[in-house]
Design a protein that fits this description.
The complex is a heterodimer of chains A (389) and B (154).
Chain A: E1 2-6, H1 17-29, E2 34-40, E3 55-59, E4 62-67, H2 75-86, H3 92-102, H4 107-116, E5 122-126, H5 131-136, E6 144-147, H6 161-164, E7 170-173, H7 176-185, E8 193-195, E9 221-225, H8 234-245, E10 253-257, E11 270-274, H9 278-287, E12 290-293, H10 302-309, E13 314-317, H11 321-330, E14 333-336, H12 339-351, H13 353-370, H14 373-386
Parallel strand pairs in A: 1-2, 1-5, 2-4, 5-6, 6-7, 7-8, 9-10, 9-12, 10-11, 12-13, 13-14
Antiparallel strand pairs in A: 3-4
Helix pairs in contact in A: 2-3, 10-13
Chain B: H1 11-32, H2 42-58, H3 66-69, H4 73-76, H5 92-153
Helix pairs in contact in B: 2-5
The chains are: A alpha/beta (389), B mainly alpha (154).
Chain lengths: 389, 154
């Protein structure tokens, strides 16, 4: 098949969740299909400044066709329209303008779809919230497969999306919760869909590639892995963690591994590592006692799957239905909504090592069952073949 | 791949146990502080907690009836956006540009400390709307049941 994958920015050095998901799926599809990536020249998801040359290039097995961004993002205009949209005061035209302001505005990509869309058997779009998907799906709706990477955040309630969600010819979802979310929002029945998640290779055996003691990391520690950001629930995590320390509990260290977009309090039991490379990341996942996943908005959470891939149990935010759903399906994590639940679950996981180990093993069994690459790509291939026009 | 040891653990069952333990602790604490004497009834407490929890956790402003019944959201909705406008047709654009460049950063700087409190108040308002609505639903349901029982009895 001749396939196109539309994504707002593309590159091996781009760390975003949907961008990575698109790249790793596209690379695997390219082993049996002719795959072209249609994307912008931007690398920075805040400004959308043109940084890569426009035009065609070959990246590994993929053809990559880049289109220039017409204008960088005005954060002021974007903040103003966002406030109106999320307060429910925006007209349909203003709601549509939100997607233009969110960008990256790539009118030439949309023109390419108008002129050449019919040359592709299937066009896969990642992430509904960006300009290329929002304006691209209607142009080639008969062959569009949307991977929405939707979260239960205020944007999903935008009125004009109710019709938009009925347009694609098919969907590839990351979790059953995401399918339910889009199904509830769409005005009509959903087109055919499948739930693919994302693939993982088996983790290497327990690794001590990087000694943790010189970094000041104790034997028993809680691990947060990812961007340290209030939107990821880190403020609440740190507040709850510090509150637990005031209770009569044995001390345990919290390791925050990831670039920080917020202040992390100075505390002898909080260890800040900043960005961590792959060997240290693997060591942390191998040696941690519990993975902390406080994010209220997730469409899949690869970090949670990686933790289970290492047999590591987790404590997740139940306000995120995806995380709670994954915890229950895998029987691999406990969940909390408020501080008392957070403290009680942490107690269970730290004071009952057999139970914690068992939850980790069940998480690993779940990953083996659902998230190995052969299973994931079989689902993708079967879906694209059955839905082929 | 590691072999599994020991019996399977059900996360849902474990969480039910944790939630039951916490509910018992909460009831004891509230009663100890002189809370409503009705809470000595364990089942009634569990019911009240469940109603309020559903209101707080499952209802959001966009799906509530009460805000729809209020006449105009401009009259009650907290407005947290700082916007500048001018009625002057010609000089207006220049004045707005100056206000945006000079006044807006100052206003934001002065306003920032209270912004979080406005957001919290907004959240509390939504939660109270949700609790009221949940209680209204429960009340309406009980009225329906009483009506139904009356009809059957009489």
């Amino acid at each position: 098949m001749k396939l196109a994958c539309v994504i707002h920015r593309f590159g091996a050095d781009i760390a975003g969740g949907s961008e990575t998901h698109c790249r790793i799926i596209a690379e695997r599809l390219a082993s049996s299909h002719d795959v072209t990536i249609l994307t912008s020249c931007a690398k920075d998801h805040v400004t959308w400044q043109n940084e890569c040359p426009a035009g065609l290039s070959e990246v590994g097995p993929l053809h990559v066709l880049r289109f220039p961004v017409a204008r960088t993002r005005s954060l002021e205009r974007f903040a103003e329209i966002s406030e109106d949209v999320f307060a429910g005061r925006a007209s349909a035209a203003d709601q549509e303008r939100w997607f233009t302001e969110n960008g990256p505005e790539v009118p030439e990509l949309i023109r390419h779809l108008q002129q050449h869309g019919s040359e592709y058997d299937r066009i896969l779009f990642w992430s509904y919230r960006y300009y290329p998907s929002f304006f691209g799906v209607p142009v080639v709706a008969d062959r569009a497969v949307l991977v929405p990477t939707a979260e239960d955040d205020p944007l999903i309630r935008m009125e004009i999306l109710a019709r938009f969600f009925t347009l694609p010819a098919g969907y590839m979802f990351l979790t059953p919760e995401e399918a339910d979310l889009i199904g509830e929002r769409a005005t009509g029945p959903l087109p055919p869909f499948c739930i693919i998640g994302s693939g993982l290779d088996p983790a290497p055996p327990q690794t001590d590639a990087v000694p943790l003691e010189p970094l000041g990391i104790a034997d028993k520690f809680l691990l947060y892995l990812g961007r340290v950001d209030p939107n990821k629930g880190c403020e609440t995590l740190l507040r709850y963690f510090l509150k637990v320390q005031t209770l009569d509990r044995p001390p345990v260290q919290l390791v925050m591994a990831g670039p920080a977009n917020m202040e992390i309090p100075e505390h002898p039991l909080i260890k800040r590592l900043g960005f961590v490379d792959e060997p240290l990341r693997e060591t942390l996942l191998s040696r941690a006692s519990v993975l902390m996943m406080p994010s209220p908005f997730e469409s899949l959470s690869l970090v949670l799957l990686e933790a289970w891939n290492h047999g590591l149990p987790a404590l997740v935010n139940a306000r995120c239905s995806v995380l709670k759903g994954q915890a229950v399906r895998a029987n691999g994590a406990l969940y909390y909504r408020r501080f008392e639940e957070f403290a009680a679950c942490l107690d269970y996981l730290l004071t009952r090592p057999d139970l914690a180990r068992r939850l980790g093993e069940q998480g690993l069994a779940y990953v083996n069952r659902e998230y190995r690459w052969p299973q994931v790509m079989r689902k993708v291939e079967d879906f694209l073949t059955s839905a082929s026009t | 791949m590691s072999a599994m040891n020991g019996p399977a653990v059900s996360v849902e069952a474990l969480m039910r146990q944790i939630e039951d333990d916490l509910r018992l602790q909460l009831r004891t604490r509230i009663l100890g502080r002189g809370g409503a004497k009705e809470y000595t009834d364990e089942q009634l407490f569990a019911r009240v907690e469940s109603i309020l929890r559903r209101a707080v956790e499952e209802r959001e402003q966009h799906s509530l009836l009460l805000p729809e019944l209020l006449s105009d959201d401009q009259e009650w909705q907290l407005q947290t956006q700082v916007r500048f406008s001018s009625h002057r047709p010609i000089l207006g654009k220049l004045i707005i540009a100056v206000k945006r460049r000079l006044l807006l950063p100052v206003s934001r700087w002065l306003y920032e400390y209270s912004f979080e409190n406005f957001r919290r108040q907004q959240r509390v308002n939504v939660m109270l709307f949700a609790c009221l609505e949940q209680l209204a639903i429960e009340n309406a349901r009980l009225c329906q049941e009483i009506e139904h029982l009356r009809k059957r009895a009489g």
